[in-house]
Design goal:
The chain is of the alpha+beta class and about 240 residues long. Helices cover about 35% and strands about 10% of the residues. The two termini are about 30 Å apart.
């Protein structure tokens, strides 16, 4: 199969389109990449979109997928959590960067869990910036077992009575801020932080302060309105608005 590049189709979605070459992208390299994708050398890819300087310069879909089909974006949507924490800071719901908001530790963020946090003094060194960057240093395993397995930490967190407490009960195995460890439980903590400080569930806050202002009202179908983890079902073409 021999791929032939075409400038993305201009539609009424607010995006300007331009050619790869006009934005300084090597057309030959993109064509080689696309030929490899079409020949199955990169597995089961669903789409490839490239935005540069605010312009859509490549938009391709594969197999049964197109710009209108909603996709399970899974952990890609976790980026929305960080955006919403930033908005909450900007709106004054949470102390901002200038007020040291990123440096606040879990004891100040979640004082209702003081007993759990104080079980290990090392937990007091976990800061908001560590939660945002998944570098809290807590023991966590979402890889060994499938997500429907009761031994999976995410399964445990999402099926217990107090998910934040479950996460905070985990032992510290690395110094906070030193090592990335994938941890969906930290995203639950961020969602809870939004809920406590804004008195809005995560999806309500997101729709009011992010999706609606960007003209994407009702794009979100949340399985559980409390958590950023569940902001999942979007089209790829709409997702590019969020970086």
């Amino acid at each position: 199969m021999n791929y032939e590049y075409k400038i993305p189709k201009k539609i009424d979605d607010g995006w300007k389109t331009l050619s790869l070459t006009e934005e300084g992208i090597d057309l030959n390299k993109i064509e080689d990449l696309m030929n490899n994708i079409l020949n199955g050398n990169f597995g089961n890819l669903q789409s490839l979109l490239i935005v540069k300087n605010g312009k859509l310069i490549l938009e391709e879909y594969f197999g049964e997928y197109d710009r209108n089909k909603k996709q399970d974006l899974a952990s890609v949507a976790k980026s929305i959590g960080s955006i919403l924490i930033g908005i909450a800071m900007d709106k004054g719901f949470i102390e901002g960067i200038a007020q040291g908001g990123l440096e606040k530790n879990v004891l100040k963020l979640f004082p209702e869990h003081e007993g759990t946090i104080n079980e290990n003094v090392r937990k007091q060194k976990i800061l908001l910036k560590h939660i945002l960057s998944m570098s809290a240093g807590l023991e966590w395993d979402e890889q060994t077992y499938s997500y429907d397995n009761p031994k999976n930490d995410w399964f445990k967190a999402s099926h217990c009575d107090n998910s934040v407490k479950f996460v905070l009960q985990k032992p510290v195995i690395h110094p906070p801020g030193k090592r990335f460890q994938y941890n969906g439980g930290l995203t639950i903590m961020l969602s809870d932080l939004i809920k406590k400080n804004t008195r809005m569930d995560a999806d309500e806050f997101a729709e009011k302060y992010l999706f609606t202002p960007l003209g994407n009202r009702r794009l979100l179908l949340a399985e559980d309105r409390r958590w950023f983890n569940r902001f999942r079902w979007w089209t790829f073409s709409k997702t590019k608005r969020y970086g």
